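Good morning C.,

I know you're traveling, so I'll keep this short. The sequence:
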Amino acid sequence: MSTKKSAKVASATEILEQVTEEKPAPKRKPRVKKADAVVAEAAVEKKPRAKRTPKAKKAEEATAELSLSTPVEETVITPEPQSPESSSIPTLHISDTDLYLFHSGKHLGAYNFMGAHQSAENGVAGVRFTTWAPNAGRICVIGDFNGWELNDASNMQQISTGGLWSIFIPNIQHGMKYKFAVFNKHSGHMVYKSDPYGISAELRPHTASVFNNETSYTWNDSEWLEYRAKHNSLESPMNTYEVHLASWKTKDGNFLSYEELSEILPKYVHDMGYTHVELMPLHEHPLDKSWGYQAVGYYAATSRHGDLRGLKKLIDKFHEYKIGVILDWVAGHFCKDAHGLINFDGGPTYEYQDYNKANNQGWGAHNFDLGRNEVRSFLISNALYWIREFHVDGLRVDAVSNIIYLNYDRNDGEWTPNIHGGHENLEATGFLREFNWTIHHECPGVVTVAEESSSWPNITGSVHENGLGFDFKWNMGWMNDTLRYVELDPVYRKYHHHLINFSMIYHYSENFILSLSHDEVVHGKKSLVNKMWGDLWNKYAGFRSYLGYMMGHPGKKLLFMGSEFGQFVEWREFEELQWAVIDEFPIHGQIQHYVRTLNKFYLSHPCLWQADQEKSGFRWLDADNGDQSILSFVRYDKENNQSLIFICNFTPVMHLDFEIGVPEAGSYSEVLNSDYQEFGGSGQQTGERIFTIPEERHNCAQHIKIKVPPMATIILQRYD
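The tokens, ready to paste straight into the viewer:
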């Protein structure tokens, strides 16, 4: 590191001291320069190390912290002439501004200097490693390049009073594995840690970070990104297919690569008529059963499917088919595996200092300290990393309830009220507002989605009006109520009619997504089709009717993979979906055909998505027919002139000459019916046009008489 560079670090330190109101550190010589020189010399003249005995190793570790305070003897070397390779590699500069913004919680691109980056310094090509560990007394980079041994030449140097450490190490090649050996300055305890900012990692069960300088990719989605920036998601169709990449399809029981998935998954999603795909978390994670929700590598795309270039190709292919990509993003908690973020420098670092607040006992995880500036820089930079580097079109934030409530899943005495005596996590709500404002300011057109199950107000309200700023919220209430309803024997449904119609009471309080996600088809909850009441015929019929009702109900849509062809067993993350049933049992092919038809019907009718959040876009015809368990309503477009009438029968009883009020006189025709034989139904349908009768029904001046099939949803459209 040059003298000029060292001066920059000192200047940044002074700025940080003013911000944190700490006493100035004693002036010292620029140790970063010395350490770099020692490493560079070691690279020029490498001598074989004598094999150490266990006793010698123990002695070395016992005196490791002492070596930090021992002055490093200055070594002057004359750099060899720059090679063509090193001359083409820029020097990584960590500026005063970088340090100030990082420690202020305002850095939006911390990944550009944190972690491991190729650099050329003093005419030598190598890698600069930088990490944050405020309670460390020593950090040594170990890896393939030094035989995984602790040595002074690989000791990082502290470059800010806030706990940033950095070192330049020459001659590190692409694919080399490494870790940080972090010593706590108070206890001397040492832990081996993966790089929190590492962009590549070993495949489990191995846990090292992997240096990767082969990340460039030529994107072909400029038209898509231009369209996205101008896109109004509230007034557009949004029908999402939720996918767990590892179990969507496999090859001989093994994971498909990102490249292999790019050849089949985007085309399938497009052919099925979906507008978006939601990928369950792709952060590197140690346990397959966690589905990615217990992460260690927030910047590392999971190695289960290959490298990050392959993931970029997959997302690029989705964009070629005009499919938006939403990524599950876990900002509330991280797993307790020792090589991860937990107690990174031997004590609480990324998690809350208060153990009760940090410990997430129910999930076996630790909660992020969302009030700590460096954690905010880590997470918001991470969100932007996935958007900027991988072109994702949205982030679905997992477990928002756990983030915003201090008492979430905790008993009395297990949590401490905030300064106002309430259960709201004030710093966490502040973080979410900052996160959402930043994403929307920096990345126009990118959507954020909250998985949140409570009645917390204004989840999708504007940050400027004290809302949390999300674009959408999963409607967990609708999901819970309606799934309880369809599991009931139809004989008893009339006593629980509120479960199927209550959602419209609160629908306009948020921008909702009607979600039928992975959480509803695991752990003994049964598959979606198997939740339905009755024998097999009624289960499949009830499933079709329920999805028809969902498509007519205001709000965007989400369906978990496998449900689109009526997979009968619960989802299993360790094996692929039961694709074989489509060919073996005709009903599953018919179910898939129905879902594809319904999806494309949704796309082609603006009244089903254009005015989702406007009261003029929906009208009940009969919400209260509990005795027959039949709902009827109308959907309108933004101009209030295109309309569709939905009639949903939730019993296996067919009704002839069923009377229903309609808003306009004229003739009506059935445009879709879940009971069509091509979908596996009984074939009860109305083939001819239906003319209105000028007699009042359901607060309408005219009505029609129609045949209502058993356990079915039918859709009518008026003709002039």
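Safe travels,
E.
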